[in-house]
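Worked example 2:
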Amino acid sequence: MIPVFSMNIFGALLVFIRIFSMLLFAPIFGNDAIPIRLQVIISILFTMVIYPIVSETLRVPFSLDLLMLALLVGKEAMLGIIFGFAATIVMSIMRYTGDFLGRLIGFHEGNIVDPFFQDDVGFVGHFYSILFMLLFLSLNGHHFIIQIIAKSFSIAAVGDVTITGPLVQKISSMIGDIFLFGIKFSAPILAFIIITTVAFGILGKAIPEMNLLIMMLPAKILIGLVGIIVIFPFVFVIMKQLITGLYRDLELILHLV
């Protein structure tokens, strides 16, 4: 352990800011159910472990004026925000895709509170959110988050973080790819619902006296649930692809800053 009197206080502060901002927005660690005080304590403990290792490579002088310190703190916080945004959007797309499918099927009135996002969501979206989180943990995603935070200091030195054009392009490409996954994920059930709606439209023209409103909702719910069950084996494949792609993308993002 480096003695306190020989520590670069500003460097240690920047290490803490990077770790804290990454954990604050990362899956699992950034959960709203975890008190902010506990997140600060965890970040301090990580800082105490990581700082002695990276102290020799710090490019931060022992004395800084307030403006320069604020600039460096902003850079480190921005890295954490970008890191967390890239990780969280993967989880969000599964949640909102499930919520969209639930509303399409007819479960728009059955909202519950999602403990991960502290927001109302349909139970289909909640189910996929929980499923994704469990798969993330089973694939040691929480270990990867810790590893990538520690690795970030060797890839992007403290005080040397910049927002580059390739970084912005990569994040934009990543968002597009994730939404494409969401479309592929929802396409089969969406096709079932469209076919059902068209079929009932034709039936309504053929038999005008039939009460379609009473018949359509149960039929959509039944077909939607059957569709969810049918595609369930493929859900794990899609989620696993998203998680493994997330590992690769987060490391690439660090190389681009």
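The mean pLDDT is 78. The first strand starts at residue 111 and ends at 114.
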